[in-house]
Structures are given as C-alpha cells and as structure tokens.
Design brief:
Distance between the termini: 70 Å
Helix content: 10-25%
Strand content: 35-45%
Structural class: alpha+beta
Oligomer: single chain
Number of strands: 11
Shape: globular
Largest sheet: 9 strands, antiparallel
Length: about 180
C-alpha cells in the first residue's frame, strides 16, 4: 500500500502540540513583535517611555480597568516595547488562580517543561515554587507560581532576542555619542 506524503502531512500536523504549529505568541491579540499602536490605541492602556533591559516603552492597564486570563482576574498587566515592537508581556495574577491559568496555557501551547525549587517565606517556612516554561524559536512563555510573594503568580511572554538587541544598540550609542543626539 502506497501512502502519499500529502495525505500523511495533515495527520502528522494533528499530532504536533499546538505550540509547534503556532505562528505567534501573545496575549489577546497583542503578539510578540506587534506594533506599539496595537496596545497604545486602546484607551484602557497608558504608555510611557522607560529605559529597561528589554525595551524603551511600557504600556499598562489604566487604574480601574479590568482584564482576565483564563477566567482569572489580572492584578497587573505590562507590555514592553523596543523600537515600537512588542518584546515582552508580564501578567500578575493571584496564586490561587495559578493552576487554572497553567492548565489553559498547556491546552493552548502543549505541555511545558516544569522546574521546581524551594522558597522560604519571611518566617522561614519552605514552599515549592513551580515554574512552567514553553520554549519557541526566539521566544518563550513562563508561568511562575510564586513571584516575589506567596500570594502572587506571574506569566511572562518573552522575545528572547530583545535584551541582546537593546544591549547592542545601547553599547553602540555609548561608543559613538553622536548617535545619542
């Protein structure tokens, strides 16, 4: 029996995790690499110029605006831009919603890699901090159970090449002050 390669391809694609098939990575239509105007034109967001390792502009939800991820309330939402292109997204949620969000991310992107570490609170009590990582060509998605506090979790979408681009550009400017006029 001869099987055509064209007939087998759709079957093989169906077996790949969704992450392998995904063309872009982002949050609610704001994909990594998308233009600043995508978020800046939304009146629910405020943008400001900054000097961070991964960019030059940050946009966030305005005071009183609400957002959700996988049905969980978002405590804070930041979009990081470099030269007008989205280079990172950081979403903070309540730790009680962490597993629900991780389950939704796994349903969308496939199984992530799990890393566990022990962390201590101020009283010295140890807790297991779980971090899920989804790796893509030139980008990653990270979900961290405890983010600075035991009651807060964080989801990060990263353009893994952004920090290097910003660092190279800043180093070039430092070497040639005429570029900083």
């Amino acid at each position: 029996m001869k099987v055509s390669g064209l007939k087998v391809l759709p079957a093989l694609l169906a077996l790949l995790p969704l992450a392998a098939q995904a063309e872009s990575l982002g949050f609610k239509g704001a994909d990594l690499g998308s233009p600043l105007a995508r978020v800046a034109s939304d009146p629910r967001h405020a943008c400001r110029v900054v000097n961070t390792p991964i960019g030059d502009t940050i946009c966030s939800l305005r005071q009183g605006e609400l957002e959700t991820i996988a049905g969980a309330s978002v405590a804070s939402l930041f979009y990081f831009y470099d030269n007008g292109q989205l280079s990172g997204i950081q979403i903070s949620i309540a730790e009680k919603d962490f597993q629900r969000v991780v389950d939704a991310l796994a349903a969308k992107y496939g199984a992530g890699a799990l890393k566990s570490e022990r962390v201590k609170n101020l009283k010295g009590v140890e807790h297991e901090n779980r971090t899920w990582l989804w790796q893509f060509p030139e980008a990653s998605l990270e979900a961290q159970r405890y983010a600075g506090r035991l009651d807060k979790s964080v989801i990060r979408y990263n353009d893994d090449t952004a920090a290097a681009r910003v660092q190279q550009r800043r180093a070039a400017t430092a070497r040639d002050p005429r570029q900083d006029l």
